[in-house]
Design a protein that fits this description.
375 residues, Quinone Oxidoreductase, Chain A, domain 1, Rossmann fold, 2 domains, 12 helices, 19 strands, globular, binds nicotinamide-adenine-dinucleotide, binds zinc ion
Amino acid sequence: MKTRAAVLREMGLPRPYAVTRPLRIEELELAPPGPGEMLVRISAAGLCHSDLSVIEGARPRPMPMVLGHEAAGIVEALGPGAAGFTEGDHVVFSFVPMCGDCLPCAEGRPALCENGAAANTAGTLLGGARRWCDAPDGEMNHHLGVSAFAERTVVSARSAVKIDPALPPEIAALFGCAVMTGVGAVLNTARVPAGASVVVFGLGGVGLAAVLGAVVAGAHPVVAVDPLPEKRALALTLGASHAVRSGDHVVADVRAITGGGADFVFESVGSEVVLAQAYAATRRGGTTIATGLPHPSKQFSVPAVSLVAEERSVRGSYMGSAVPRRDVPRFVALFQAGKLPVDRLLTHRVTLEEVNEGFDRLADGQAVRQVIVMT
Ligand SMILES: NC(=O)c1ccc[n+]([C@@H]2O[C@H](COP(=O)([O-])OP(=O)(O)OC[C@H]3O[C@@H](n4cnc5c(N)ncnc54)[C@H](O)[C@@H]3O)[C@@H](O)[C@H]2O)c1
Ligand SMILES: [Zn+2]
Ligand SMILES: [Zn+2]
């Protein structure tokens, strides 16, 4: 079938994207779902910094590719053996498909699925196939098994989680990445206990979701750090107790508020320089959690003795260490109970045609989550 999709053919084009238009809206051929796969009509798709990093070339992927990985949709057709779903189901996607067979999956850590990671790196679905076709007969890659900047997509059933159909699609989409990553980093990776001190560096969709996660965990103080005053103001309205401007004084400021450093410090910028600040703002015995994704060439170093003499921990958190089928319904229930107001992260609704302008806005820090609402 034919479907319209936003295609990236070349990474690293200069800004403004409103002029260079790295994402082109094209009519592509989409093959029917194969074994274990399903055809999904996209209802809403969020713009995440990880998409922007692919556009910039900071997170290199095989080209050409249909971008987008944070989305909600409705199942339209099932391939053979797509267990657990029926036509008409409302779903959100997880951006690592879980094979269920590898060691991390067996350990209950599907965010680290080895077969899922290999498929994501190759630009295929979990089973190894590509269902997009580039005219005439060329290969077109999937983004993280999802490729949501499209009217329709084909995914592995192991990339999807069923959700309550009452959830508005533009809110549902956020659970696929920002919420799963930010809230998951706090509740799953760090397991922040009530009363612990938390600092979050970087107040985009991921960082603000981490602030919401820290609030629901009962952390105090919750210190929110960003260069942009509007982001800091929003964090305060979401329950952060303090907001600090980033810059030369940030570590001293955070250490003053937390009495010598915080128990848990989250980096959600994607900068190795900010990660070093996060480490410096962590107290003796505390944990620094990296959720931002720096360019693969970047290194991070710490005084080696501090790990031992201060019993420090540094942890990475991918997809919020989530078990999507457990965590998406859990986080949705918290939202529906009014305890996790993730709708506050949604700042803009855009059309598929406005996707390049949306990425300019994200790069300029003028938006938190922008969601493409499919018409
Ligand atoms: N670990 C994962 O599974 C995962 C999932 C999604 C996104 N990510 C990564 O997380 C990062 C954040 O994603 P996002 O979509 O929230 O991005 P975003 O662009 O919406 O937010 C980044 C924020 O960082 C702020 N910032 C910039 N420089 C800063 C500094 N020096 N100190 C403090 N804050 C600073 C910006 O003003 C902005 O508010 C990206 O690197 C993204 O690739 C990781
Ligand atoms: Zn993302
Ligand atoms: Zn696996």
